[in-house]
Design a protein that fits this description.
Number of strands: 10
CATH architecture of one domain: 3-Layer(aba) Sandwich
Distance between the termini: 35 Å
Number of helices: 11
CATH topology of one domain: Rossmann fold
CATH class of one domain: Alpha Beta
Length: 300
């Protein structure tokens, strides 16, 4: 029986493929949605992991229709094919942004979604479509909402922070006191593998995050430690920083309001539901995962 993965060439897909090859006995195969993929689903398939999607564009240069065509329409087509196939398990990797871009307290599965971006809205529409379809007996669906994923091969905000620290540039946002959740890609791969191999996980929505939330100052300290450096944390007026981010919005600079929010906001995600049903602890702790990611930057 095969595990078909869409988006296998992406950051998460590459890591998941390697992880499942190492820890799973099932055949791992790419479900390339640019080819005659419907025929492939009709073969001896047990699980479909749907990773392919339109990622959140921090520069807001993407047309809104792109999110809905890829994150919603395409997901609906893949899920419809799953329902008609002999496959038993469908895993859709959504995002916590399908729930909220800003939160108070801790984000868990009981919070009513209210996404603000086209990215989040398109992901939520796909989730709702999956939940609205009658589920044939013997089949299960799992909607996973990861928070910020990082790991080897990641080219996002952590990589940008790492390069600044590597060059000895001080971190100027130390005045912001925050906590946010991160997710090591290995922990995400672990959860997906356990869902596939278990027959006891009920269909539904699950938030995925590392156990401990970290402040950005703690993150900077860990990244500096991976380089053998002392962290350079500058405490600059928050109002000045916000003004600079506003300028970044206009000129499309690396520091813009959205990136500033990502770096300084509180965004704590609970992983208690998935841990409770799996009855397992995640293999990688938050700080350990950050060091693994940082070391991959250094070796890349």
């Amino acid at each position: 029986m095969a595990i078909l993965i869409t988006g296998i060439s992406g950051f998460v897909g590459r890591n998941l493929q390697s992880y499942l090859i190492k820890y799973s006995k099932e055949e791992i195969s790419d479900l390339d949605l640019r080819t005659r993929w419907l025929e492939k689903i009709k073969t001896d398939t047990n699980t479909i992991v749907h990773l392919a999607g339109k990622a959140h564009d921090l520069l807001n240069s993407s047309h809104p229709d792109e999110y809905y065509k890829i994150n919603f329409d395409l997901t609906c087509k893949v899920y419809d094919a799953f329902l008609k196939s002999n496959a038993k398990c469908f895993i859709f990797v959504s995002s916590v942004k399908a729930v909220a871009d800003r939160i108070e307290g801790t984000l868990d599965e009981t919070i009513t979604p209210h996404p603000e971006t086209h990215y989040g809205k398109s992901k939520l529409m796909a989730e709702e479509y999956i939940m609205q379809q009658p589920l044939p007996k013997g089949k299960n669906f799992y909607i996973l909402r990861p928070c910020m994923i990082h790991g080897p091969g990641n080219k996002g905000n952590l990589n940008l922070l790492y390069r600044f620290i590597q060059r000895g540039i001080p971190y100027p946002l130390a005045a912001f006191d925050n906590k946010r959740s991160f997710l090591s890609v290995e922990n995400l791969c672990f959860v997906i593998k356990e869902i596939i191999s278990s027959n006891k996980v009920p269909s539904g929505i699950y938030h995925i995050a590392d156990d401990e939330a970290l402040s950005t100052n703690e993150l900077i300290t860990l990244l500096a430690r991976s380089l053998g450096k002392n962290p350079k944390l500058w405490i600059i007026s928050k109002s000045i920083i916000r003004k600079l981010a506003w300028i970044g919005d206009k000129l499309r600079l690396p520091l813009n309001s959205e990136r500033l929010n990502k770096l300084t906001e509180n965004y704590i995600v609970s992983n208690e539901k998935i841990k409770k049903v799996l009855l397992l602890e995640l293999p990688i702790q938050s700080s350990e995962g950050i060091i693994i990611t940082a070391n991959s930057f250094n070796n890349g």
